[in-house]
Every structure is written in C-alpha cells, then in structure tokens.
Amino acid sequence: MAGLNARQLKELQYLLEAAGPQPASEAARALGVKERTLRADLPALASYCAERGALLPRGRRQGLSIEAAPEVRARLRHDVAAAAVEGEGALDSHERRRRMVVRFLLSPELPTLDQWCEEFGVSRPSIVKDIKAVKEWLAERRLALVGKSGVGYSLVAREFDLRNAVVQYLVQGNEVKLADPAAWRDGRPVLGDFDFAPVRRFLDELQRDAKAELIESDYVALALYVAITVVRLRDGRRVPDDLGDLQSLLGTSEHKLVTRHVRSVEKACGVKLSPAEATHLTLNFICAKKLQPRPVTDAAPGGEAERLANEVAHDAEEVFGVPLAKDEDFLRLLATHIGVTLRKLRFGLPLEPEGPTEEIKRQHPLAFGVGLMFTERLSQRLGRKVPVLEGTYVAMHVAAGLEKVKYRLQRRKRVALVCTTALSASTLLFWQLTNLLPQVDVVQVGTYEDVVKGRMTSQVDLIVSTVALPPVDAPVVVISPLFTADDRRRILAAIQAKPERDLIHRTAVQLLTPETTLLNRTYADSRRLLAEVGRFLVQRGYAKRGFVKALLKREAQFGSALNMPVPLAMPHAGPTYTRKTAVALVTLKQAIPFKLVEDPARELRVRLVIIPLLALDDVTGMRFYELLAAIRRKKLGRAIVEAAKPEEVIGLVAGSLGGHAGKDGATAKDGR
Fold it and tell me: Which site in 100, 172, 283, 648 is 20 to 30 Å from 615, CA atoms measured?
C-alpha cells in the first residue's frame, strides 16, 4: 500500500464498508477529518483503487463510494485491514495527534518530547506543533497539559471533566455501538473488558420511566460515562463532594430517577455512587439529546431557552418573511436544543467540537447568518464566547423549518375559485371543493370582473372557474356550476399533474420589478447605498417610513455580505416595514465593501445587493427563498451583474426558475 498514509488507509477502509454513496461532509465527520482534507486525499485513493480494478467516482453531488466486483472489494478490504494492523504508511499529523490524545487521557505515564520524536520518527518542530494542537483540544474540554523540560508532561484536570473528555474522544468521529467490542480498542486501557449489560438495563429503565428516548450517539456516550465512572471508582478516583451550581439539580425528577435506577448498576458492578457522583450522572442525562423531545425550560426564571428560540424565529422572519414564530413544533425543537446548550455552558460540560459548519455556511448562508446572530446575542448575555458551531446547529433548525414549510406548500394545492357572481353558487362550490378534495386549499373566491381587473391572485396552483377566462398566469379548469363527477375528475387530474415547476418557482420571479431593479449604479459606500435606495423605496410606496433608519441600524449591528460564487449583500429591515411586496436588486459599476455575515469585523466587496421587502406569509417567504437560491448560482449571478436593462435581469431569472416573468417583465425567451 505504498503511497498511502495511515489517514488515507482509514478513509479507504471507511468507504469500503459504507452501505452506499456518502456525502463528503458526512464521511469527513465520521472519519474525524476536515472535508477539504478528505477531498485532497481522493486522487490518491482513486488511483490506488483503479490500479486494482475498482473505481472511486468523484462526480459532483453523487457522493463517495467504491464501485467494485465482490471479489475485488473483498481483496481490497483484506489489503487495507492488513496494512492498518501492520502500521504501513507514514503517520500523518492527524493520526499522530489522535494517538497523543489517547495517551494523555488514558495513560498514567506520559512520554517526554524526545520520546515522542523517537516513537513517531519525526522532527522536534513537528512534535511541538502536534502537542500544541493536542493542548488546544484538551483546553477546550477544561483539561490542562503541563510540561516540564526533561521530565515530560502531566494532565491537570477535574475528575468529571476528564471522564467527559474520554467519552467525547471515544465517540467523536466513530460510528460505535455498545454491542461491538472491536470499536473500543482505544478505550481498552481504561475500560478493559467491561460488561455493558447492567449499564444497558439501567439506561433502558431510565428512558422508560423518564418517557424520553435518547438518540443513539448520546445513549452510547451516557453508557460510556457510566462505565468509566465505575472503573474510576474501583481505582479510588471520585468526583469532589462540593456540588457548586449542581445543587440546583438535587430533587429534580431526573435526579430522583437516576438515583433510584443506578442502584442496579451499583449492585452488579460492586461500587457505590456518592450523591455527587449521582448528580454528575444526572447532569449528563439531562444534557443528552432525546428523540421527540418535550418542551424544555432552562433553570433560569421565565424560560430562557424559549425566549431565545422565539428571538431566533423572529430573526428568521426578518430575513425570509416566513412566520416561523407561529410554528410550535419548530419552537419546541429549537428550545430543546438551546436548553441543552445553556445547561452545558452553565455547568461546564464540553460542547460538541466539530460539525458541518462549512457545509451549512455554503448551502444555507442566510440561515447560517441567523445562527451567528444567536451566538452573538448569547455571548453578550453570558459574558463569554459561544462557539460558532452552536450557531451552525441553530441554522440547521432554521433551514429545517423552512424546508418543512416548502414541503407543506408543495403537498397542498392552492386553488382560486371564479364564478359569474361570487354569491350563492360560489359558496356552494367552495364547500363542495373543500369537502370532496381535502388536498386542496381554496385561498380566494372572486368573479370574472375580479380576474379582468387583476384583483384575483395569481399565486395559486389552479384556478377553477364556471366561466371561460382571458389568459392568466395560472392553469385554469372550467367546470359546470353544478360540479359534476366529470368536473371533479378533471380537477383531480389537473392538481395531480406534475408541472414543469411548482407554484413557488413559477411565481418567485414576480418579486422582481423593472422599477426596483437598479443597474450599474455608483455609490461611495454601503451606507450611502442603503440611504439612497431606501429613500427611493419609501418614495415609490414599497416601504414604510422608518425603513432607511432600520436598514442602517441593522447593518451597523450585523453583517449582510455573503461570500458566495458571486459575492452579494442582502441588507434588510424585516416585514414590518413592507408596504408593497418586492425585491430591490442593485448592481454596481464598482464593488463596495459590506460587513460579512459570518464575521462583522471583516468586509467583503460586492457588486450585487438585494434588499427584500417581504410579507409575513409562507408563500411570499418561499418565493424569496427560491429566488435567492437561483441568484446564488455562479452563472446567473455573473449574468445579472453584467446586465444592462431590468427586463434582461428579470428574463434571466425567469429562465433559471423555469417560470414566466409576469406582465411587467420579460419572458424567459426574451431574456436569453
């Protein structure tokens, strides 16, 4: 296996064992490496596979997997496993540091600097860099690595922090199960051949009585914590009796359950947990993630977790115009996550060290910005820095909430009903449609005159009419006022037909208007741009008074620049300032700097600025969501920046979305 180092062996082994194609981000997280490191290793892995009759396709968005005949795959598995056991390949820095962490956490005697050099066969400067990285990893978990020249190193740590660091190390980057003893080779120095059966019984009974099912990774982590606690107690290593802030956990329902059920572990393992040990175990149980979680309130009066979840929802509403603050499930799940984070921060438990930050930043930049607003706000309240990763997880909740809205809109069809007169006949048809077609929402009822004068909405999947209509920007089914069985079949066929693009895509471009598409402008700086464009939008009736002040205030507090294939800024003031729904799109002759969303202390020069004026409703929010997704594409973004006329921009966007530009804009054909 010449040419592959230990890390690459591990990566190849993972891909050989994977059940199907794996996204690079997921594979990197499972392997405990950075995604860019994994991608940099792919050519070497692909070359090795090709030499032995296997393929490692690396096409965009198809995931990573090894394609090979069964006998070739079996031979590859054998070769990789043998190479890993024999220690072939030079150890890279990641593998050296992994082994260092194991020794620092689990070994009573720690090597000196020279001994590390001799063991790994690398220079002192390389080992110094490795130890610095390991020190940082340990420090993040409240562990101090102290070194003395000529003597070596010692680890200074509280017992509780040490146990949690060991658990986190064993679980981090490993898809481990309690039933698989081979997964615990790194933990053998401290766990030996520990019997997990009593621990499983304890956790299963605890979950049953608490009516809370732990997610698998946290079930394993809690089981490991119990096992390590038992082993450390046998060695005479106990947590201090002084509980400090943990006093607040005494007498809680979780503490009572843990204290009662842990007796079975004590009896089976021959140990006795002190009140302090039981309380620390309770803390880990409370902070573990659960499936279908119940509403959580933080220990602070007034439910800090719920308040923060509502603030996140309102931040997201300002950006997307989607009323997430009305979604109880979204708020409950988000408050549960925030409640766990608050407890970990309060009691000094380690937060998760790694996560999909780069992927979320790339795929959901605006949701990521909402998450960063949360971490900034929480950092100010707590007086300490909250890791960016916590903002990433909040962004994932926001993105999931938006996708849920999108799914619901796609599943239920929005229908407008048109009659000769909007009186008795329309009322009867309304209830017939509602009762006979439960997958339909009748969102508007009007007359032929309403259609002709533009008073009927075009933001529907279908128009059902008792009279022939002039051309409109939505499919139409003409039915009898008596609503026959044949009418019902034709409506069903119309709403079940798969359109080229759904309602959201079809109408998203209508947020752009020639009047609010301002091209090839020149401004001295971002403040001047916001002031002048803001005043223009107020004067033309798109925004309410106070809009400019709100724009400038928010821009001073948070960044709005997004580092995407075509950099753009998206300053906004929220739906409360919207008078008429639209999106202002501004292109610049010369780029000007805006503060970055991810780091307001830095700036990014942009030539494309988007200022949304949204209504607080699901349809408008999702239209903007899809519009922005289209504009983010490199080819379209560049074409917009170089466009000379507003109609050209609208045509380009309409073509990308696969819809129509609407009565005020150009068609997709016109813009190409």
Answer: 648
